[in-house]
Amino acid sequence: MTVTFPQKGLPWLLLLPQLLVTAIFFLWPAEQALEQAFYQEDAFGLSREFIGLENFAALFTDPLYYQSMLTTLVFSFSVAIVGMSLALLLAVMADRVIRGKLAYQTLLIWPYAVAPALAGVLWWILFDPSMGPIALWLKSAGVDWNHYLNGNQAMILVVIASTWKQISYNFLFFLAGLQAVPRSLIEAAAIDGASPFKRFWTIVFPLLSPTTFFLLVVNLVYAFFETFGVIDATTKGGPGQSTTTLVYKVFNDGFVGLDLGGSAAQSVVLMAIVGLMTVIQFRFIERKVQYS
Amino acid sequence: MTDVILEKVGKTYPNGYHAIPSVDLSIEEGEFIVLVGPSGCGKSTLLRMVAGLESISTGELRIRGERMNEKEPAERDIAMVFQNYALYPHMSVYDNMAYGLKNRGMAKNLIEEKVSDVAAMLGLTELLQRKPRQLSGGQRQRVAMGRAMVRDPKVFLFDEPLSNLDAKLRVQMRVEIRQLQRKLGTTTLYVTHDQVEAMTLADRLVVLNKGKAEQIGTPMDLYNKPATPFVAAFIGSPSMNLIDANLTEQGIKISEALTLPLSHQHRGGIVWGIRPEHLEVSDEHNADFALRILAVESLGAETLIHGKVETELGNGDPMVVRLSGPHLPDVNSLMWLTAPVLHWHLFDAKTQQRLRD
Ligand SMILES: Nc1ncnc2c1ncn2[C@@H]1O[C@H](COP(=O)(O)OP(=O)(O)OP(=O)(O)O)[C@@H](O)[C@H]1O
Ligand SMILES: [Mg+2]
């Protein structure tokens, strides 16, 4: 069915707010970043000079940039794997619960409603080395917790803080996936002598693979691009560079280090990565990961 | 030797629904038992209790003398064929069939031997490397049977295995299942709501009604001597004509104007029944009654005539007549019929039990 409008202008008018938002908050900054990536600007933004690809050359010879890439990969895969494993575990448990199912599921969706920065602050308080309850408990258990000094601990903290929110999302998808597995398959496997553990790994998990792959992509994209708020609220990329992801580095180099050209060049690289991931996502999800 | 015994087996679901009050059944070794009944009567529930997929609320299940109530499905040495086949979609036909053997820790070369034997028996050899989604409905059905057969279990359980196939394939598979079962000699419990399937497959039939076994017996027992009007109506197609009547000194009083003579000591409300194929065409002088024809169904080999019993007081109870060969009586005309006493079925209206002849 097609809807026809009497005037040609009305559809455009209706689209205008959306187009404006896209133009102001996406197209214009993107264009700015692209342009800036080819200039060197002084710290006060008073003068600038065209330098061609020098910003990119500097970027790709900077060991810190590669360090940050590695950090991003470690961080992203940790968030994806930890978040998905926990969510799957919770979903399997929720799938078995009969009484109070709704309450249990609703509780698990709550974290998703909390703003990332708020989640960050929450974990920052809980893990604060001098007064955070979790940090104090860890200390009493013999772990010397101080994520301001220890890079690995800082990484663990940002992974926890970022994962926490994503569990709800993963949980919902896994639960839907589990509920779509026909009961008779599990029953057939039970008659075929498979233990519950074996049933899960040889029947249920393979049948979940489309969901799992979809979530892996979504979680990686989330960890790459949407965790700025969490990192800023907990570790600010530190100590040193230990939790500086690519996105955080764009902000840090641009607004703290005031290297606008270098920061813009990094944004352009990130844009390319986003494009690539979008292509991968569409390619694979269109084709669907079939159990083959 | 008695193979499977259900002793006062009952089921109450967790939501309080009393699906099966109590069923007693003992199955001989190698016997083919069919559970038949209308939708929702508890056939699947009973089968699933034997399989161990539903807990048994009351009573006891024994297989080869051993109590099974607390045993896991895998420990009961049964195999089940599901209505939707329940093939593992991500595994090849070979792996589907081998799965149960692998789980039981059988040696690899032995598994290969068993699977290829069964595959050959079912004509699946060419399909072993395919995935279930690459098979036709009939082929999937075969794989499901193959998966049950490779394990060589004590008991086969089938839950409406043919209901997803088209009519022709259904008849073919029905014959095949019967032949295979005969050949293997495995005790079988088979659920269906199709009475033709039930009659043709069963050594003995169990007719279930609201979770109660109305009658257990050979197909011919049930056809010739149905214990209740329910069984009478359920077995045979088209259904037996059943008419509420009164047994008096004069005989069976069907209506004010029609009494069929009979001497019987029983008095009071009864259900009088006669099968459509037992009514005979007659003439005005010898007939027991007349039928006002409402519709004629010609099937070639036979003709079904639907009508109402005609008396001086108007039209009475509906009745179906089955005649062999083609007939073309006019709709709305009268047809004179006799109902041979030999083929009458009488049931007490109150207790719903068959009256002794
Ligand atoms: N898990 C359950 N909880 C509560 N009631 C149930 C459950 N499963 C089945 N029932 C009820 O028990 C009765 C018997 O169900 P069952 O599945 O055994 O019927 P059936 O004879 O196999 O019917 P069909 O021919 O439609 O498959 C039905 O009334 C059904 O609603
Ligand atoms: Mg059923």
UniProtKB/TrEMBL annotation, chain A:
Alphabetically list the UniProt keywords.
Answer: Cell inner membrane, Cell membrane, Membrane, Transmembrane, Transmembrane helix, Transport
Location in the cell: Cell inner membrane; Cell membrane
Q: Which domain of life is it from?
A: Bacteria
InterPro entries cross-referenced by the UniProt entry: MetI-like (IPR000515), MetI-like_sf (IPR035906), UgpAE/MalFG_permease (IPR050809)
* Keyword flag Membrane: yes
User: What Pfam families has UniProt attached to this entry?
Assistant: BPD_transp_1
Tell me which species this is from.
Answer: Marinomonas polaris DSM 16579
State any GO BP term from the record. Answer: transmembrane transport
Name the chain's protein. Answer: sn-glycerol-3-phosphate transport system permease protein UgpA
What do we know about how this protein assembles, alone or with others?
Answer: The complex is composed of two ATP-binding proteins (UgpC), two transmembrane proteins (UgpA and UgpE) and a solute-binding protein (UgpB).
According to its UniProt record, where is this protein mainly located?
A: membrane
Q: Where does the ABC transmembrane type-1 domain start and stop, copy by copy?
A: 69-281
Q: How does it sit in the membrane?
A: Multi-pass membrane protein
One cellular component term from this protein's GO annotations in UniProt: plasma membrane
Chain segments annotated as transmembrane: 12-30, 73-94, 106-127, 154-178, 199-225, 264-285
Family statement drawn from the similarity comment of this UniProt entry: Belongs to the binding-protein-dependent transport system permease family. UgpAE subfamily.
Q: Which PANTHER family match?
A: BLL4140 PROTEIN, SN-GLYCEROL-3-PHOSPHATE TRANSPORT SYSTEM PERMEASE PROTEIN UGPA
UniProtKB/TrEMBL annotation, chain B:
Asked whether the UniProt record includes Protease among its keywords, one would answer no
- ABC transporter domain residues are 4-235
This chain belongs to the protein called Carbohydrate ABC transporter ATP-binding protein, CUT1 family
* Cellular component GO terms, alphabetical: ATP-binding cassette (ABC) transporter complex, substrate-binding subunit-containing
Q: Which Gene3D superfamilies match?
A: 2.40.50.100, Nucleic acid-binding proteins, P-loop containing nucleotide triphosphate hydrolases
Write the record's keywords in alphabetical order, separated by commas.
ATP-binding, Cell inner membrane, Cell membrane, Membrane, Nucleotide-binding, Sugar transport, Translocase, Transport
One GO term (biological process):
glycerol-3-phosphate transmembrane transport
Quote one Gene Ontology molecular function term. Answer: ABC-type transporter activity
Query: Pfam families, alphabetically?
Result: ABC_tran, OB_MalK
